[in-house]
Amino acid sequence: MSDFGSFIEKQMNSFLEDSVFNDFIHKELVPLSHLNEKHSRLILEIDLPFVDKKNIEVTLSNDHLTVNAKLTKTFCISRGNVATEFDYFKKTIKIPNSVDMKQISATFKNGILKITMPKPVQGRKIPIK
What we know:
129 residues, 4-stranded mixed beta sheet, 2 helices, 18% helix
C-alpha cells in the first residue's frame, strides 16, 4: 500500500473511532453539564430533558462517574437525507482525587440531575483554651 493509501486509511480509522461518530452509532447524546465548586463540595448539574427519574442510572467505577438516561421520546437529528434517532443521554466524567467517593449523592428535579460530591475534611479543629 502506498504512503498516501496508508495515510487515508489511518484518517478513516481515526474518524470511525471518534467519540462524536460513536454517539451516532450508539444513539447516545452527550447532555449539557456544569461543574461548580462550593466550599466543601463539588456540584455537577446535568441537563436531562425528556427523562424520567426511573430511567436514570448513575454508576461510579474506580475514578469515573457515568450517567445513562433513557429519553421518554426519541430525539431525531436530520442532516441532508440522513436522519439519526437518539434514545439515550450518556455522560462520563473523571472524579477529582479531592472527592470523598463514599459520600456522593444525587437528586433529580425539573429535568436537572444534581450530583453532590463532598470533599473529605482535611486537618483537624484545634480547640482554643
